Amino acid sequence: QNMRELLLGKYEKRFQRLLEFLPGTIAWTLILAPAVGGIFIPNVIAYAIIIFLAYWFYKSFKSAFYSFKGYFIVKHWETIDWYKKWKKDKTTESLNWKDIKHVVIIPNYNESEKVLSKSLRAFANQKQIDKNSMLVLLAMEARVDDAKAKANNLIKKFKDKFGLISATFHPDNLPGEIRGKAANEAWAAKEAKKILDKAGIPLEYVTITSCDADAQFHPKYFAALAYHFAIDRERYLKFWQSPIFWYNNLNRVPFPIRMLGVIGHAIHLSDLQEPSRLIFNYSCYSLSFKLLYGVGYWHTNIIPEDWHLFLQTFFENKGQVEVEPVYLPTSIDAPEAKTWFGSLRNRYEQCKRHAWGATDIPYAIKESIKHTEIPILNRLFRVFKILETHVVWSTNWFLLSLGATLPVIVNPAFSRTALGFTLPRIAETVLTICLTALVVMVAVDLALRPKEIRPSGALAVIKEVLQWVTLPIISLPLSVLPGLHAQTMLMVGKRLEYRVTEKV
Prior knowledge:
- By secondary structure, the chain is of the alpha/beta class.
- The chain has helices at 2-10, 12-40, 42-77, 82-89, 113-124, 147-158, 181-199, 221-231, 255-271, 289-294, 306-316, 340-355, 360-370, 376-401, 406-410, 412-415, 418-448, 458-467, 471-492, and strands at residues 101-107, 134-141, 164-170, 206-210, 238-241, 244-245, 285-288, 322-325, 330-331.
- The strands form 2 sheets. The chain has a 7-stranded mixed beta sheet with strand order 3-2-1-4-7-5-8, sandwiched between helices. A two-stranded parallel sheet has the order 6-9.
- The relative contact order is 0.15.
């Protein structure tokens, strides 16, 4: 008790700074361990590398299996009439379908009317629900010169497509805020609350959806959301998450970005089926407005808001909050620019911004210490999941590509032992077998892609297959290094500024 009070009271700033060292310190220790440890404790390093290879083998085939399974789940969900299913499954505790309202917040900064129109059109094309149940808010930034004109044009264009379409204008430089998505949508959500109160709509009947400005939801997403919100007795302790795919512009972006997207699609589809239920919401997601209101909306002093919001609600609700999958894909833009290298730069910056989610590690640890009413294993598993995700993100390439060879190179005597001789061969064998899992994940993505963005003709297929040879090279600068960059910035006390990904 006394220690907790000291860490969260008198020494909180020092404790916070110590926790900010954690992800970067662990990452750099793991990266340097094969070279340094290979000199002094080569056997220990070798066995540690073998354990990591076994872990990677397990993760690869788990992702392959669940992405393959996920394909069939998606195809099944696309055939369901969600309103009929609600009529069949409803109980006395279920909400009335017609009473449910869906608030949609579209935070945006410099996105064009064209990009926003595509997203609004996808919302307007929702099936199996009444268009009047949707309340759409364009969350504009007041500092943008043409924000009001853009909003007025879009409202005029889509005024008959929803129960309400309006705009909010987030003021700049409010005290305690960091520019970004979280601050903007928090402002919009508070404005939405005023609209709901004025219309006499209870929060208990309202979902709220956060999305990117380029998000195009599946036509049945909100019908599926309405079904689960109406039926689930734990509706006020749930997030709903769809798999996120870069299908809007996948064929236009450089092949390195396209390849990373394909792998990301399969992994995200797989992660939604995580048997441990340690799932977090990501990018575009929905939750009960009551749940959001109960934690005071999004924190406005953070950049990556998705996992952070889950942690807010998780700790404020005794660890009972969970994420439920909605197996209907949401399509967004891959990072893109007007030039090939500009697109790669945008991908790097976007990935670094996502990796800044490592700031959630100190927050999760401090909240875990504070909320002792939550079972300790429940708290530990959540903290471990966040730490595992970020550390593996920034270290996997080094451990897989160099971990088995560096001890042999820096310690010639070790290379002449049975373990030293065998270690590189074990790594080569495991990684070769893991290619099978990669093939499965690529095949799943190809099967899920809309026909217009699938490779057409034998030459296109061969070209795509040959490009996969470069994956180990591509993943370093476009995935691993941005993650390590963000964690190192956090470690040395530098702060990240929010940079909106360019839309073309």
